[in-house]
C-alpha cells in the first residue's frame, strides 16, 4: 500500500514539473538564426555580387543549388544567438551528406573556389568554448 501511494506521489510531482504543451509552443515560436551572404560571382568579376541567405540554427537549410564562390556571415544579422558562437558548413547536396566547405564562422568565411561551385544546403550550429579548443 505504501509503495503505491509513494509511486503515485512521485508520478504526480513529475507530471507537474513537466513542460506543458503551451510552454513548448511558446519555445517553438522563437527563431534562432544568422544571416549569411553568398558570393554568386567568381573571384574575377567586379563588383562582386552577394545574395542574402537567412539560416536557422540547427536546421539544414536548402539553398536551391546556388552557384557560389564564397559564403560569409552578415555579422550584424543574428536572431537570439551570439554570432561569435555559431559555426556553419556548406553541402553540395540537399541532404547535407556531401561536404561543400570546411566549417566556417563569423571571422573566417568559406572560400569555396575562385570559380563558381554548386552549394545546395547549409547547416549552422552553436559551438561552445569547449568545442572550439
UniProtKB/TrEMBL annotation:
Keyword annotations from UniProtKB, A to Z: Signal
Signal sequence coordinates: 1-17
Keyword Signal: yes
Domain of life: Eukaryota
Protein name in UniProt: Ubiquitin 3 binding protein But2 C-terminal domain-containing protein
Organism of this sequence: Zasmidium cellare ATCC 36951
